[in-house]
Amino acid sequence: MGPAGSGKSTYCATMAEHFKALNRRCYIVNLDPAAEDFKYPVTADVRDLIQLDDVMEDHELHFGPNGGLIFCMEYVIKNLTWLQENLEAGEDDYFIFDCPGQIELYNHLPVMRQLTEALQSWDFRVCGVFLVDSQFLGESSKFVSGVLSSLSCMINLEIPHISIMTKIDLLPKKSKKKIKEYLDPDMLSMAETMNHHSAKYNKLTEMICQLIDDYSMVRFLAFDQSDEDSINIVLQNIDMALQYGEDLEVQVKDFETDEQE
Ligand SMILES: Nc1nc2c(ncn2[C@@H]2O[C@H](COP(=O)(O)OP(=O)(O)OP(=O)(O)O)[C@@H](O)[C@H]2O)c(=O)[nH]1
Ligand SMILES: [Mg+2]
């Protein structure tokens, strides 16, 4: 998930390659009814169910691109059997859902939550991965704004949640250093750098930063698609959030115990 153009589809393509190199299976589902072409193999495509263009061209519905997208996602929720039929999952299968970028889907509409609840009811473990373009995080105020959008998504979905800064490979060396400060941010000194003219707003900024700091609510991981280690760290964090592989260990232990008996 994440704002338009934050790199969601590119993340899916990078992960598809990475999984291949690890010899691990991974299936990617396109949930964006407006998507056009893909740089990854698509296991299931929401456009087989509904397409944004068709909705926008419908003379009775009269939707623009954003209203049309919401209509499409509500249609998906009304037709969840389509999704379930397309997710014939084996044990330990790993799916990535490439989601649309409109932020309203995550922070106040119920559709994405309904979707994650459906996946959980089908016995999937679900982790939210929220992407923000690192090029927009280089200033304290923009960083706090990125944290808040990730946070509102996390609170709305109530699932394990990982926040990622994308396009690190595009940053000049100097900005890369600066971005590192944002991976483990000192929110209070950040608040000081954002002083406004109005004391009232300064206090508000301070309190927002304090809140983020007190609860360590959002920590970003850097995602550099040109750096294998950075991809690995992101994947490990998601695996941990999903408790991926824990059952495998249990099965091995059970097997050993059986043999001893
Ligand atoms: N260099 C570089 N370019 C990236 C990276 N991630 C995305 N891009 C580029 O950024 C643009 C948008 O990336 P997408 O992956 O399409 O973004 P998206 O979030 O799927 O966009 P929407 O689906 O339209 O919301 C494309 O031109 C990508 O090639 C990255 O990590 N590094
Ligand atoms: Mg996309």
Keywords:
261 residues; binds guanosine-5'-triphosphate; three-stranded parallel β-sheet; 53% helix; mainly alpha
Task: Give a summary of the structure in a few sentences.
The protein is built from 12 helices and 6 strands. It has helices at residues 8-22, 52-57, 65-78, 80-86, 104-107, 111-121, 140-157, 173-183, 187-193, 199-214, 228-242, 246-260, and strands at 27-30, 42-45, 95-98, 128-133, 161-166, 220-222.
| Assigned CATH superfamily | P-loop containing nucleotide triphosphate hydrolases
Q: Helical percent range? A: 40-55%
Number of strands: 6
How many domain regions? Answer: 1
Using the 3D structure, state the CATH architecture.
3-Layer(aba) Sandwich
Average predicted local confidence, pLDDT: 89
Taken in chain order, the helices and strands follow as HEEHHHEHHEHEHHHEHH
Which parts are unreliable, with pLDDT below 50 for 5 consecutive residues or more? none
From the N-terminal CA to the C-terminal CA, the straight-line distance is: 48 Å
In CATH, the topology is named: Rossmann fold
**Fraction of residues in β-strands:** 5-15%
The helix-and-strand class reads: mainly alpha
Morphology: globular
GO molecular function: GTP binding; GTPase activity
Subunit structure: Binds to RNA polymerase II (RNAPII).
Function: Small GTPase required for proper nuclear import of RNA polymerase II and III (RNAPII and RNAPIII). May act at an RNAP assembly step prior to nuclear import.
Keywords: GTP-binding, Hydrolase, Nucleotide-binding
